[in-house]
Amino acid sequence: MSQRGPQLPYTLVAGVKPCATGWLVAGAKLHGTTFAPEEPWVLETFTEVLDQRPAFATIALDAPIGYLENREPGGRACDREARALIGRRGAAIASAPVRSQLMEELEQSLDGLSAVSRQLLPRWREVAAEMAPYLQRNVYEVSAELSFYQLNEDRPLRWSKRTRAGQDERRALLARKIPGAERFFDASLPRVPRSHMLDVAALMWTARRIFARAGVRVPEDPQWDEQGLRMEIVR
Predict the structure, then answer these.
(1) Rg, C-alpha atoms of the chain
(2) Cα end-to-end distance, the chain, whole Å
């Protein structure tokens, strides 16, 4: 993810989330105190996200980075601690699969995974194929639920994002915190639900925090997987 081409007068950060047609990207330009979100767009593969030019200085990625080799109750430490943080909304954070499940195609080997997690496995495999420890200088695992928790002054949200009340709650938070957030409210992309647009805007906010070294690691002392990847969620 080295910078190519002429030096730019701004820095690019992005929130990135898997979607039905690839990877939903919410980018923003940073220059001093100026934070300028761009229109969201979709890239077909995770490789394209990493290969964007100009390159993203920080990518806040809503997908697992690092996998346990064996099952543990409640999954990785970061999954368990994230659930504990958001309390009543904890069920919204699923455990990452173990590494053998990530690569498995047989339905009977996917016991314990939610329907949503099973649907996302192909996207997660893309990330696993690309990730290496050095990329964690730029690519961070995040969670939209934790991003909204932070946006809400470290308080859990009241409603699910699948409800109208939940979407209104999230939209109000984003409007207060992010100049130009209406770009996400009004955006329309094929097969991308409105809840995804709200999520990726919150991830972009977290990317900005991480770039400014204001992000908080969950847990503070992360586990490491057998490929040398930190298993953490940053908010």
Answers:
(1) 17
(2) 22
CATH architecture of 1-235: 2-Layer Sandwich (3.30)
Q: What is the mean pLDDT of the chain?
A: 92
User: Phi and psi of 218, rounded to 5°?
Assistant: -125, 115
Residue-range domain boundaries for the chain? 1-235
- Check if the beta carbon of residue 31 is closer than 8 Å to that of residue 14: no
Q: Has residue 185 got a pLDDT over 90?
A: no
Average pLDDT of span 190-196: 94
> Using an 8 Å Cβ cutoff, are 56 and 27 in contact?
yes
DSSP string, the chain: ----SSPPSSEEEEEEEEETTEEEEEEEEEETTEEEE---EEES-HHHHHT-SSPPSEEEESS--S--SS--TTSSHHHHHHHHHHGGGGGGSPPPPPHHHHT---GGGGTT--HHHHHHHHHHHHHHHH--GGGGGTEEE--HHHHHHHHTTS---SS-TTSHHHHHHHHHHHHHHSTTTHHHHS---TT--HHHHHHHHHHHHHHHHHHTT---EEEEEEEE-TTS-EEEEE-
Tell me, what's the pLDDT at 210?
Answer: 97
pLDDT of residue 142: 98
Task: Specify the residue for token string 């910078």.
Answer: 3
Contact present, 203 and 142 (Cβ < 8 Å): yes
